[in-house]
Amino acid sequence: MKKLPEHFIFGGATAAYQAEGATQEDGKGAVAWDAFLKEEGRFSPNPASDFYHQYPVDIELCEKFGVNGLRLSIAWSRIFPDGVGEPNPKGIAYYHDVFKQCIEHNVIPFVTLHHFDTPKALFDQGDFLNRDNLDAFVAYAKFCFEEFTEVKHWSTFNEIYPVATNQYLLGVFPPGIHFDFSKVIMCLHNMMVAHARTVNIFKDNKYPGEIGVVHSLETKYPVSDSPEDIHAAFLEDAISIRFLLEATYLGRYTDDLLAALDEICAAQNASYDFLEADYLEMEKASHRNDFLGINHYQCHFCKAYQGPNEIYHNGTGEKGSSVYRVNGIAERIYRDDIPRTDWDWLIYPQGMYDLLVRIKKDYPHYKKIYITENGMGYKDEFEDGVILDTPRIDYLRQYLSAISDAITDGVNVEGYFLWSLMDLFSWTNGYNKRYGLFYVDFETQKRYPKESAYWYKQLSETKTII
Ligand code: BG6
């Protein structure tokens, strides 16, 4: 039986917009999502899991079920309704109370400053494509470091790559732009610069605690041994993984990576322009990250592809409906021998192991890793108060075993945050893609532990993966 370390964190993960609801309460400012979702008309971010009011219940559940860390994000627009200017006392008081309750219940808060929810006022001015907004983010971060001194674990951003691609490639996040690789690359770079600047401010001011960034890293494999498919996987890896890890841990981009970017730009008629001064900031930060947060759910098998760009995002759970073909980079292939969820996410725990050992090998000064998200979206069935989510337990068992193997092989992983603590609102899937340890009846907001919650409690108590 595989074990996890004695002082491991068995956490649960959430995000403000997906959990809190109350999008117009107590002076919260608007975010671009409010209007975007309304226009789409598919689902509403209210009430979500009503964490804005239910947090005492959720935090008590954490304590009861051995969840000793809670990953959550601060909604920037609850603190600064327009992103800059006068802070909102009610938003500040709310988060102080959330953190206080966590601490009182032996649940360590791990706080992300930005989880897909830039205030609308700044978003409308170009979000992170607008360099002025980097200043606004850094000022907001500094305010939080000085205000929320009870927090000791900070992440700057959640998932820079999905921000850039969902906003400017897939178009499933506001502003809904498709296939604009210039914007994708500049968004990636600018957010990494904002991360570096924030880390440097945190360290220069000697704020207590630790700081890092959360990257979504989905391992890429060639679908065959052909040189073309191997190259396709190399290109996908370059833009979605190496770009972020080089920016984080080298503070610059290697020539090899820039050559891959140039190839992508040539195929996609795109360009980029990075400022020399940015590299100074990034290099300074590159040895100051206390941890790397990794969100990992799935991996991709890549096949060389030249043809029209074509992406269909499976946001309904209709298995087999996903399409991903990007000219000059890759087509993603679903293999019949690898199981996948109803949303076409491949269940391949080897991808987690390979990713972890690669980070240790390629970036030996990485210090520490937290798995900040991993879990299985599933159409849970509620029968007489019982939720038998056996496929989820099976998924968790496999991925945690891969993490345990990586730890045995010398990778320093110190915690795991299961996505999600309770069922949440999913940005592009709404409410039927459930991930929680706790089932949420979205009508009554009552919580019910799933079978996986009991399994996780036992894991947290015994550190043994059964
Ligand atoms: C991560 C995000 O990408 O994956 C979460 O950080 C998100 O916000 C989670 O909800 C699961 O994705 P989805 O699309 O299934 O909700």
What is the annotated CATH architecture?
Answer: Alpha-Beta Barrel
> Portion of residues in helices?
40-55%
Number of strands: 17
Structure ligands: 6-O-phosphono-beta-D-glucopyranose
What does this structure look like?
One of its GO terms (cellular component) is cytosol. Its EC number is 3.2.1.85. This is 6-phospho-beta-galactosidase. It is globular, with a radius of gyration of 21 Å. The chain is 41% helix and 16% strand. The strands form four sheets. Strands 2-3-4-5-6-8-13-14 form an eight-stranded parallel β-barrel, surrounded by six helices. With 466 residues, it is α/β, with parallel strands linked by helices. The longest helix has 24 residues, at 181-204. A hairpin with a 6-residue loop joins strand 15 (438-440) and strand 16. Helix 7 (132-147) packs parallel to helix 9 and helix 10 crosses helix 11 (255-268). The structure holds 6-O-phosphono-beta-D-glucopyranose. 6-O-phosphono-beta-D-glucopyranose binds next to loops. Residues 15, 18, 158-159, 162, 216, 295, 373, 377, 419, 426-429, 433 line the site of 6-O-phosphono-beta-D-glucopyranose.
Topology:
Layout: E1 2-3, E2 9-13, H1 16-19, H2 32-40, H3 51-64, E3 69-73, H4 76-79, H5 89-104, E4 108-114, H6 120-123, H7 132-147, E5 153-158, H8 160-168, H9 181-204, E6 210-216, E7 220-222, H10 227-249, H11 255-268, H12 276-285, E8 291-295, E9 300-303, E10 310-312, E11 323-326, E12 330-333, H13 350-362, E13 369-374, H14 390-408, E14 413-419, E15 438-440, E16 447-449, H15 451-462, E17 464-465
Parallel strand pairs: 2-3, 2-14, 3-4, 4-5, 5-6, 6-8, 7-9, 8-13, 13-14
Antiparallel strand pairs: 1-17, 9-12, 10-11, 11-12, 15-16
Helix pairs in contact: 3-5, 7-9, 8-9, 9-10, 9-12, 10-11, 13-14
Residues 15, 18, 158-159, 162, 216, 295, 373, 377, 419, 426-429, 433 line the site of 6-O-phosphono-beta-D-glucopyranose.
